[in-house]
Amino acid sequence: MSMFIAIEGLDGSGKSTQINLLIKKFEAEGKATRFVHFPRLNQGIFGELIASFLRGEYGAVNAVHPQLVALLFAEDRKQFAETIQGWLAEGCYVLVDRYVLSNIAFQCAKTKDEHEKEKLRQWINMFEYEFQAIPKPDLSFYLEVPFEFTQRALNAAREGEQRNYLKGKEDIHEKDLELQYAVRKEYEQILEMDESIVKVTCCDEHQQIKSIKEIHELILDILETKLTIKANGVF
Fold first, then answer.
1. Which intervals hold domain Thymidylate kinase-like (predicted)?
2. Model confidence, pTM
3. Where are the alpha helices (DSSP H) in the chain?
């Protein structure tokens, strides 16, 4: 039985850490597991265009209409959709770091008018899932962390090969904390409207971040329930 899982959250929310733990867990259980991070920066024509945008080569965050930016991210997913469909057909567990909900959250966060937000939200869903016909996750997790944690994570030095797309520059999405806060608000809206996304509260009642293990166990508890439901043919 295949499973398609998306991990969502703000930049620096710990998505990569939790994905790595899930991959180890699934592989230890003998499940064929595949992973892809979206956007696929510097891969293919759309990955290269997205990397250029995030480096600020087309101007500041609001210099490009969010619908056009949404189109770039959507086309990057479309280029990889056949591979995901193949993995699922083989019975793999497929994990993605960010997917369509991320596109909605980030692009709608750049629009202040509520009517325009709703139009853009509906357009992205239609374009990605109906027009592009990409596979839809069985389940999406949103890692909710205190915004102060996001600020600290983004202000800290971030290194590694995954940062090569920046070519020594800053990511215009990451450095804009006002945008990040607006994205958080958009995810909260999505949680109210979309039952396929589940919030994982990564802090305690004192707004202290839970341990990596505690967050992992929360995800596993939710996943076990969803897998039981799927096995019974409910979704």
1. 7-201
2. 0.91
3. 15-28, 44-54, 66-89, 100-108, 114-125, 147-155, 177-193, 212-231
Average pLDDT score over residue span 61-73:
96
- The encoded tokens of residue 201 equal 């509260």
Residue 198 pairs in a beta bridge with 141
Backbone angles phi, psi at 191, to 5 degrees: -60, -30
Q: Evaluate the omega torsion of the peptide bond into residue 39 and state whether it is cis, within 30 degrees of 0.
A: yes
Q: From its phi and psi, is residue 115 left (phi > 0), alpha (psi between -120 and 50) or beta?
A: alpha
Tokens 């994205």 sit on residue: 183
Residue set of the binding site: 9-16
Per-residue pLDDT tens over the stretch 143-176: 999 998 888 888 776 666 677 888 888 899 989 9
Tokens found for residue 109: 């966060």
The whole-angstrom separation of Cα 136 and Cα 29 is 24
| Residue 151 contacts residue 131 (beta carbons within 8 Å) | no
* Half-sphere exposure in the Cβ direction for 22 (13 Å, CA): 29
Q: Which residues are annotated as a binding site for ATP?
A: 9-16
Q: What is the C-alpha separation between 100 and 8, in angstroms, rounded?
A: 10
Question: Each residue of 114-130: pLDDT tens digit?
Answer: 999 999 999 999 999 99
The separation between the first and the last C-alpha atoms of the chain, rounded to the nearest angstrom, is 13
Long-range contacts of 16-23 (CB under 8 A, 24+ apart): 16/97, 17/212, 18/141, 18/143, 18/212, 18/215, 18/216, 18/219, 19/95, 19/97, 21/212, 21/216, 22/95, 22/216, 22/219, 23/95
